[in-house]
Amino acid sequence: MNIFRRLLPTKFGFKISKNSCNAWGIYSIHSSPDCVVEVHSPEQEVIIALGSNVGNRLQNFDEALHLMKKSGIQITRHACLYETAPAYVTDQPRFLNSAVRGVTKLGPHELLGVLKKIEKDMGRTTGIIYGPRPIDLDILFYGKFKIHSEILDVPHERIWERPFVVAPLIDLLGSDIDSDTVARWHLFSKHSSDLFELWEKLGGESLVGKNGMKRVLPVGNNLWDWSSKTSVMGILNLTPDSFSDGGKYLSVEAAVSQVRLMLSEGADIIDFGAQSTRPNASKISVEEELDRLIPVIEAVNKMPEVEGKLLSVDTFYSDVASEAVKNGVHLVNDVSGGRLDSNMHNVVAALRVPFIAMHMRGDPSSMQNPENLQYNDVCKDVAFELHERLKEAELAGIPAWRLIIDPGIGFSKNTEHNLDILTGLTTIRSEIARRSLALSRAPLLIGPSRKRFLGEVCARPAADERDPATVAAVTTGVLNGANIVRVHNVRYNADALGLCDALLERKQYA
């Protein structure tokens, strides 16, 4: 129960009255010139919207989040990132929009003061309303309160007409109502029974990708709209013991030649792996992994063909991730989702690069042990465990807009599990969505290429004979919602993805 203390009068006082919905124990805060009542509570859950269209928009977001954390706002969730056409005043640059959910002990007007100071410190000046700004920070919700004073209205009466505000707001929820506070936020929605209905009335998911709004992932110097086409990640194993092509690309010359081939065949991303993660693989040191990795990355970055392409490092060591990014890699791909190195999440958060979090139980030496192959429902169990990894990453400071999810085909799974995952990707997304819509909307990567389960199904004991089965697996995954496929044979799979994308586009407009 909140405790209320009467303070001395100030310019902006509050009059607190019981809301008519007494079962909620809710209060409304109204302006009153003759008294102040302060809300005392250990902390309040808040939602804050972010917008920017001046300067380096993404850097502005990162700096604003940093300053918010320093000012007593603990950020617990991030929405997706949206690039949107300007509203109201249309003759200005496009905006980046998002929102964060967190907790704070700051009172509502203290919080407003903190956000206004951040805006000022980051260079925002008084200008035309709805005009250009380096950063715009707005309180969308504050606890269970409706607030109305001379300087603050929460929720703001015009958010309900703005898709660029409602879209990230919805991302911060789950399809399941997880608290009384969230239930109250749904009741604040005007002209709708809840926020989900409001979003549908505005146009819902049909707005994303149209009407000047697209969901993007920042990578390198670009904003990547991964929904525009399925991306091909070409595998480059710099190892002597990988299950499919171990020992083939140990020299820099051989590795560069293979990268050139994959790029010519349509690879969008090259994934460098210098440590085998096949079942029962022996672990090597950080130093040995870097000795294999860095010379190849340096050579590849000198190739003219790599311009406009993305580079990824497949590692579960944070020190390797850090060095790889310093040498020009754009993404970190961790088969453990951050579980094998306690520093991984913090390091990736500081690097400000996308993080591919994969599902695996144990480590490569133990992942296929009987105890790690026990599932009640593999898609639901994988979704729950993957969400836990994603939540840990987010709390460490990796925003949802920099996360990519991988259900881990072949890792802690038997043949039946892998088949169920390929056909159950929509179930995995919907199960994650119960807890976080933003995380469920992240790009989804699958890596079935040449794996043992394909050999078991098709009676192909040799890994390099499994390319046709890989094409079938990739096609199944993409038609069920995968956005990125990680493969050895780029040519065959790029052709398959071209057909998949054409089929999906026809289905969308049918």
Walk me through what this model shows.
- By secondary structure, the protein is of the alpha/beta class.
- It folds into two domains: 44-216, 7,8-Dihydro-6-hydroxymethylpterin-pyrophosphokinase HPPK (Alpha-Beta Plaits, 2-Layer Sandwich), CATH 3.30.70; 229-508, TIM Barrel.
- The protein is 35% helix and 21% strand.
- It is built from 16 helices and 21 strands.
- It has helices spanning 57-70, 108-121, 163-171, 180-188, 195-202, 252-264, 286-301, 318-326, 344-351, 378-395, 415-423, 425-433, 437-440, 452-458, 467-479, 490-509; strands at 3-7, 13-18, 27-32, 36-40, 44-52, 73-78, 81-84, 95-104, 136-142, 146-148, 153-154, 213-219, 222-224, 231-237, 269-273, 310-314, 331-334, 355-358, 403-406, 445-446, 484-487.
- The strands form four sheets. An eight-stranded parallel β-sheet has the order 19-18-17-16-15-14-21-20. Strands 5, 6, 7, 8, 9, 12 and 13 form a seven-stranded antiparallel β-sheet that branches.
- Strand 16 (310-314), helix 8 and strand 17 form a beta-alpha-beta unit.
- The longest helix has 20 residues, at 490-509.
- The protein is globular, with a radius of gyration of 25 Å.
- In the C-terminal section; belongs to the DHPS family. In the N-terminal section; belongs to the HPPK family.
- One of its GO terms (cellular component) is cytoplasm.
